Amino acid sequence: MPATGVEPGDTAWVLTCAALVLFMTPGLALFYAGMVRTRTTLVMLQQNIIPLGVVSIVWILLGYALAFGNDQGGIIGDLELFGLHGARDTSPAPAFHIVSGAITIPTLAFVAYQMMFAIITPALITGATADRLKFGGWVAFVAVWSLLVYSPIAHWLWGVGGWLARLGAQDWAGGMVVHASAGAAVLAVLLVIGRRRGWPHAGSLPHNLPLTIAGAGILWFGWFGFNAGDGLQANDVAAQALLNTHIAAAAGMIVWLIIEKSIDGHATVLGAVTGAVAGLATITPAAGYVTTLSALLIGALAGLVCHLALRLKFTFRFDDALDVVAVHFVGGVLGTLLVGFFASRAVNPVSADGLLTGGGPGLLGDQAVALLSVVVFSFCLTWLIATGVQKTIGLRADPADEHNLDQVQQGMDAYHLDGPAALPGTARPQGTSVAPAPVTAAKALPTGRVQLVTCMIDPQHLRADELEQAMLDAGASTIVLSDAHARTPSRRPQIYRGLRREQEFPDRLRVEVLVDADGTAAVLAALDRLAGTRDRYVQEVQQAIVDRDEPAR
C-alpha cells in the first residue's frame, strides 16, 4: 500500500484493537476454565489457547487468502495471497461494513486484526464441549474448520464481492461470522460427540468463580477492540460502537440479574457476567449501525431472551456444558435480526435504515436470509468435519477419562491445595517485635489405653489455632487434619444459571486425635464446644512398634 495512503492514527487504533481482540482469547479461557471441574481445568485452558498457534499459522498460509482474496463468484477468495505473498503491495480488502472513504491502514494491519477474529471463533465452541474432547482431534478440527467454515463465511459477509454482502446483509463485527457460525458448529459437534456421562443429573458446579469473573472482565475489556475497530478508522463511528458495546453489556447484566432474583431468589455474580456477555454478543452485529438508546434496548433484550434460552438444552436434550448456545448463538442470532429493526444511516452512512428507522422490511429480510444461510452452512459442514475427525483420529475423549482429563492429557493437576492449610489461625504482621506466643507441647504418647477420636467438622465453623489449643489442653498427643467430603442429613443447595443442584457430599474436615483414654471425654467436650457436632467416633488403638533387630521376612 502506498505510504501516502496510510494514516498513523487509524493504523495505531486498528493495531491496538487487534491486541485487545487477542487478549480476549486468554480471557475466554479463564471464563470457561472457572466453570468446569478442578480436574479438567488445564485441558479447558489448553483447548482455548491452542487456536492462538493453530489458527494463526493457518490464517497466514491460506485463511486470509480465502476470506479476503480476489472474489470467486461471491463464494470464496482465490489463492493469489497464499502465505501473504505480495500482501504488502495491496490495499486491504474493505469489509462490507467499512465506514466510508479510502482504506487508511497498511494491509498487514488488516491481516493481523482479522486474524484475531479467526482465532477466537472456534475457541467459543469449547465451552459447550467441556470434558469431552481429545487434544489431537481438537487441533485437527480447529485447523480444518477455520479454513472450510470460517473463511468462506467471512468472505460472504466481509469480503469484496461476497454474495451476502452484495445481497445487502450487514454484520458489523461478527454476529453471523463469529457467533452464529460458532453456535451452529456447537450443535453439530455435540451431535457427533454426545453427552457427558450421567448428564444432566451428574452435572458439575463451577469450581472457581473468581477465575470466571476475571475472564469475563478481560472479555468485556477486549470487546471494545472487537467492536470499535471494525470500521478501520479512529472516528465518530468507532466511538459510537465502543459506547454501544459498553451500554449493551450493562443492560444485559442488569436485566439478567433482575430475572435471576425474581426466579431463583438470588442475584449472583455469575449471572451478572453471563448477562453482560450476552449483551456483548448481541450488540456485536449492530454496534456500528445503531444509536446509544437502541444499544440499550438491544442489551436489555439480550438479557431477557438469552436467559430464557437457558432451558433449550434440557428441552432438546443436548449437553451444552457452559451454555454457549444460549449466550453466544442466541445472542448472535438475536443481534443480527435486530440490525434489521434499529440500523440507522444517521449513525453510519454506509448502513441501510432498519424497519423502525424508516427503511422498511428490506434490511430485515436480508438479515434473515443471510442468517439462515450461515447457520445451515456452518452446521452441515461442521458435522461433516467433526464426523471425519471422530472416525479417523478421534474427537471424543474416552468417557471413562472425562472426570480426570488433566491427568490423562496433561499429566498434572491445576491445583495443589488442601483445606487444613487454608484455615484461619494466628497471624501477625511480618517484622513486628511482639514475641511469638508459646506453643503448648503435646503430651507423649501414653503407654496405657490409647483412643482415637475422629470427627467431621464444617470448616466454616473452625479456627486452626483454637482447635489446636483446645485439643492440647484436653490432653491430645497427636492431632491430624485432612480433607473429606461427607454425606450429611441437610443438603446444601447450589443454583447455577437456573439449574438447582443439591450438594450430596459437602466439604468437611476430618479431625483425628490420639489421646489417653482418661482424656477422651475432654476431647469430645472441646469438639462439641468448637464445632457443635455430634458426628464423632472413638476407637481403641495400639501403637505400632517395629523391632529393627528382627530380620525382615
From TrEMBL:
Residues 12-415 form the Ammonium transporter AmtB-like domain. One of its GO terms (cellular component) is plasma membrane. It comes from the Bacteria. Pfam families: Ammonium_transp. Gene3D superfamilies: Ammonium transporter AmtB like domains. The chain crosses the membrane at residues 12-36, 48-67, 98-125, 137-160, 172-193, 205-226, 238-259, 266-283, 289-310, 322-347, 367-386. Coiled coil: none annotated. It is a multi-pass membrane protein. Keywords: Ammonia transport, Membrane, Transmembrane, Transmembrane helix, Transport. GO terms for molecular function: ammonium channel activity. It is found in: Cell membrane; Membrane. Belongs to the ammonia transporter channel (TC 1.A.11.2) family. NCBIfam families: amt. This is Ammonium transporter. It comes from Catellatospora methionotrophica.
